[in-house]
């Protein structure tokens, strides 16, 4: 860690600071220049509170040199992590197609969709049972009954299931769930992350709407620090000033995350019930940019079909995307 | 609600859509122009899922005309809400100074600070017991013991106390707490908000780092929909591209929130352990812009004092800010 | 255009507003509801100043229904525009590779690079002569001499050339330039755009760092309104909160722009001298998402080579990207 | 400047880099740690291109320690700059009220408004002659005639005048203008800034909509590097995700700029034709936070008055704001 001291700081104050830092068991290397004095902090600087240091009157700025994430850091774990979700592998060259409806609605719906997406090449079934909604007056999901219906679909088709958790107290309901999703709005719900770190379930962690990659990795670190290293990262679009699209899919996050971490990275081009006609080009781009998988919304219900198109893909459209994605993957890796 | 239909949409599809909307109990008023067709949805449109409508192939855009928040909306409740926190009033002309340390550390610290801030004009004592930290390796607060120490300070000084909750399961520990704070990162932790809606405690709801005022009010609505109308909103800085300041205090939010809602609005110029030397000008500006209160970090511990200044104010600096704030309030309201 | 009137507005004021709008030659359709009154403005609403209308005390919000861009709008020009740059076509199925160094430095450099990129499949040569730099103390480019050297390279290799303009007064120097680039920071330099609208040269318009797609298209409209319809749009990354990457390439802009406009869209994955090792995955993703071309920085100079890699690609790396891009395009369009 | 070398970089490459940096006349101090090697660059590092350095394969990150702005930097010029605009002082304790209409429309209008704002305490007259508009179809201002009318008002009332320039070629028209404004969208129009640096006129430089304070100061530096040190900075709102307000006024920029630079800082609470009813609270807050002046839109025309309120203040409202601002300034500085 490097701390730049403000010009004109009395020597006595600098000495006080150095002896305080040293008392925390961290060595300090002092280098004095004409316009500034720089302190190099050497050793286990994780004990040093950057916010506190930066807030001191005499400090101009502080820069962490080593990343604050350890378990998720590729520097210390060069090989790709492969996450196993009920026999389906993600990462390290294994590409996974996760598909299913936005919300679980009825038994007929979820079983029909799971059959269709499996035929079209999906390996994992997704479906929302607990739904995070901006408004308390909007439909909040079928909850426990939704998970029951997903389990039914799993028994029918053999596909492992992925669904979102919103409260640690619901954890007992997730026993039969193969992969637990943490939604974008809960990415920094640290108590939930800690609890998931104590489970043995693979976790699908979605990036927050306005979070940096470092914050994203620190949230993965919360889960891993508890002993659960089965974490898959999911880019699902960030908030920008653009209004034509709901969010902006950040595909540059994929190669950057691959540099920073050994964890698999999947992409959700449907981004929180987005625009169906943009799912295909964004799915192809995600495959081309190096994602380890895709998470795509697929529906089969008449209400959506009514107006000939909606926010999710039909099973037919999904089959087309699935086939094209294979072509792009082959062109990229040939 | 107004929905604009895409140019060239076949009449049959528009008719299908209209009959589907009508079947939800909402009237549709159709107006056809040369370049577009506009549907006016009249009645209780809260049943209509805007995301679903917007996602339809044939829809160009959708605009909600009435605000999605009801209980928090000033249109339906023109008078200012006054929140009573253990006898201290906030809102409707009552200005509250909330002060105390970032983290509760020791009994001596919290009692000393509470005495000093009370003398200087503070009416409520704040202090962190559960601390949300980006890194799992950072200090997470004294937790239950921290709340115990706050209660001790309350007994000594008679000041009502405010502290943050991070998990619904901790609620039993908050029995003696007068006002429960929801932190910025939990602003959309909907399960937590619902549970707090079932309590009778005043809630201090902080705005998320990248959330709009509408989302902020929808989170207040989650609490109010449960029956708890004692909500105070807190602007604490938003994320922008600026790097010299940690966050950007959005003071224009104060008059805008006063237009939109009857709930009190306080401002936290220390913004999550920010820069001490900027607290005073921002506190004065918050008073001038019409805030119903301020939440300010004050410390007295030697570690901070060591380098002559840190992220929190000293009791002496706080007393100066408190006096100046009074002057500004008088100048504004005279 | 739709204007929502605030609840409780006296009828007289609404009548005054309607007669004022009518006096501008725009018809008003009034619809009154329980909670709000909505005015539908019909006719040539381009005469109405949205900012003015929105600023009125009695107006709640205003929504433009028809897009404010006309010449660039796909609704009125359904067919793809094909821009011809010295015989090289862009758009309408024609994919263009634009390559060359960040800055033109010497005759040897630019001729060597242009030969190498032509061999590898590039059809247009780029190179910076006038360089927009954040600091007045940084190198500002070779200016007129740089354009001279580009022309020399064009004579040698036959490749049409693209270079950036920063001041309308430099226009006479661009006579031999085939395509004039407008940089991101000048996207809303309206006087420059107007002047370029009076030329007959193809324009490569880069998206501003924090501009929406609507603003981007309005800037294209400035050029087209002057009579020059040869505009190619270039997505080059937007500003987000992320700090690991300089900017965030917005690939979802490509399919969205293709919906909104008939103009060709190219992507610059090197984004203003970015990170070389991310150029390849982002270039492949841009091809997969449907871009009409790529603009890539390529260097050959020893200073860059010194440390085995730098922000631009080497000619060898560019040749690899070029070959892979062909593979992806084939997989997408087969 | 500090450059962190990537872990595992061969010694030979580090040596190559050091000798290249040394050849630029900058000394390198090498410090090797267990996990990383850090290079300290000492001397005139303004010659080093941070972008180039950061782009090198072997470099992890680069941090500039000294600010890239020199002339604008308070470190080298501790005393406040006082800018004199036709006898009216701004900065160093001199508070200036700049007022006038958004656009100059007629002689009667500008003379009437200038008389009224002068009576109410304004010391400088503003008015738009050249108007930057997002759409080429919107009114672009009276141009030369507008400047003529402003000059007329100046002759009548004796108030110095401020108006915006959009093109260096218009400079001859500004001979009688006392202070030249650079708009937010031209903040990084570097050719314009350079040309203004060669004039002797005071410049009012507005902050770009999505620009950092460092970029803002670098743009001031462009003007000052040319020899013109009469620069006043103007905060006018930045782009955020909020939609209820057009932009978000960043009042924390004022104390931060006062730390970083000796140049005066004024605030424009009307932010590019904003919401009239928010001008007063934001003006008071700007005075409280330490601004050196305010720039406020005032109108007197019947078209605005028609609907009883609009985006600008009436002369009466302005007089009220002016009086209250005096009260707040007294309370803050007493």
What can you tell me about this protein's structure?
Four copies of one chain form a homotetramer. The first copy, chain A, is built from ten helices and 14 strands. Chain A has helices spanning 11-23, 50-55, 107-119, 144-157, 190-197, 213-225, 253-260, 276-289, 302-305, 315-333, and strands at residues 2-5, 27-32, 37-42, 59-63, 83-85, 88-90, 96-100, 124-126, 161-165, 179-182, 203-206, 231-235, 265-267, 293-297. Chain A has an eight-stranded parallel sheet. In chain A, strands 2-3-1-4 form a four-stranded antiparallel sheet. Chain A has a two-stranded antiparallel sheet with strand order 5-6. In chain A, helix 3 packs across helix 4 (144-157), helix 5 crosses helix 6 (213-225) and helix 8 (276-289) runs parallel beside helix 10 (315-333). The longest helix of chain A has 19 residues, at 315-333. The interface between C and D is large, with 55 and 55 residues.
Structure described in brief:
4 copies of one chain form a homotetramer. With 334 residues, chain A is an alpha/beta fold.
User: What's the number of helices of chain A?
Assistant: 10
pLDDT < 50 stretches of chain A: 305-309
Assembly state here? homotetramer
CATH architecture of the largest domain in chain A: Alpha-Beta Barrel
Features:
334 residues; Alpha-Beta Plaits; TIM Barrel; 2 domains; eight-stranded parallel beta sheet; four-stranded antiparallel beta sheet
Set out the fold topology:
4 copies of one chain form a homotetramer.
Chain A lengths: L1 E4 L5 H13 L3 E6 L4 E6 L7 H6 L3 E5 L19 E3 L2 E3 L5 E5 L6 H13 L4 E3 L17 H14 L3 E5 L13 E4 L7 H8 L5 E4 L6 H13 L5 E5 L17 H8 L4 E3 L8 H14 L3 E5 L4 H4 L9 H19 L1
């Amino acid at each position: 860690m490097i701390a730049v001291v403000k010009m004109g700081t009395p020597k006595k104050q600098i000495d006080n600071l150095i002896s305080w830092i040293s008392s925390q068991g961290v060595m300090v290397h002092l280098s004095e220049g004409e316009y500034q004095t720089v302190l190099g902090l050497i050793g286990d600087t994780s004990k040093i509170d950057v916010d506190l240091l930066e807030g001191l009157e005499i400090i101009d700025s502080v820069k962490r040199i080593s990343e604050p994430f350890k378990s998720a850091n590729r520097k210390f774990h060069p090989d790709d992590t492969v996450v196993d979700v009920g026999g389906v592998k993600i990462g390290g060259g294994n590409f996974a197609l996760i598909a299913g409806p936005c919300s679980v609605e009825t038994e007929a719906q979820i079983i029909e969709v799971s059959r269709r997406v499996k035929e079209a090449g999906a390996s994992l079934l997704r479906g929302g049972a607990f739904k995070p909604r901006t408004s308390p007056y909007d439909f909040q999901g079928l909850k426990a009954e939704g998970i029951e219906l997903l389990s039914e679909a799993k028994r029918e088709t053999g596909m492992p299931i992925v669904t979102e958790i919103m409260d640690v107290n619901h954890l007992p309901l997730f026993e039969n769930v193969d992969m637990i999703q943490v939604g974008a709005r809960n990415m920094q719900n640290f108590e939930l992350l800690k609890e998931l770190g104590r489970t043995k379930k693979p976790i699908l962690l979605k990036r927050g709407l306005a979070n940096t990659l470092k914050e994203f990795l620190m949230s993965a670190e919360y889960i891993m620090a508890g002993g659960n290293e089965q974490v898959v990262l999911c880019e699902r679009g960030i908030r920008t000033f653009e209004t034509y699209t709901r969010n902006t899919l950040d595909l540059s996050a994929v190669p950057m995350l691959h540099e920073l971490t050994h964890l698999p990275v999947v992409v959700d081009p449907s981004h929180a019930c987005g625009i169906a006609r943009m799912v295909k080009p964004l799915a192809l781009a995600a495959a081309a940019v190096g994602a380890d998988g895709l998470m795509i919304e697929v529906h089969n219900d008449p209400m959506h079909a009514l107006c000939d198109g909606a926010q999710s893909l039909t099973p037919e459209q999904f089959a087309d995307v699935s086939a094209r994605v294979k072509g792009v993957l082959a062109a990229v890796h040939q």
